[in-house]
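Quick one: structure for this chain?
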Amino acid sequence: MNPQELLARAKEEGRSLLEPEAYAVLAAYGIPVLDYRLATSPEEASRMAEEIGFPAAMKVVSPDVIHKSDSGGVKLGIGSPAAAAEAFAEINDAVAESVEDARIEGVLIVPMAAGGIEVIAGMVRDPQFGPAVMFGLGGIFVEILKDVAFEIAPVSREEAGRLIKSIKGYPLLAGARGSKPCDLESLGSVITGLSRLALELDEVKEIDLNPVLASPDGARVLDARILL
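Got it. Here's what it folds into:
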């Protein structure tokens, strides 16, 4: 399905996008996401985890589960096909017990990401100014330091570069203390992709990409939420 079809189906069902749907929409706008699979049985989980590669992470896909970790809907460091099948069953059992009448669409399988710097990116639709793209340091930095900056869409590649450089934590991304600089072009693709998406898909109210892992090898979205 293309992004418009995914949004139309979600609106018809009265919900926001599920995480694999969010990944598909982001990828359509050139925003780098992790390789992923959606398993609907232990057998699929076993096979798909092997396709993704180990170690892998698994998390529940459900329109009724907001805090996946709190409901037992996340398993990390999956190291074998057998462990993936077991994790699939454990996730389904835990979520069914903790969230009454939860609709479980499957379990998302992604590779475990290591290294790099966590950043946050997103979009909010302001009633007066329209869509604004947000970028900043992620993890504890966004919670404690609130090191984020905004730019009204449309955002050009040049403006995306300035947005990245405007945060206080930019030296970390540029290669502080002799470390390799992160791939700023890839980070720019996240920002410009969000800008295009916001301008073309009016139904999207808010986007939260947290975290996005920035490294010398590129940027990858590790968790995505798109609200309609």
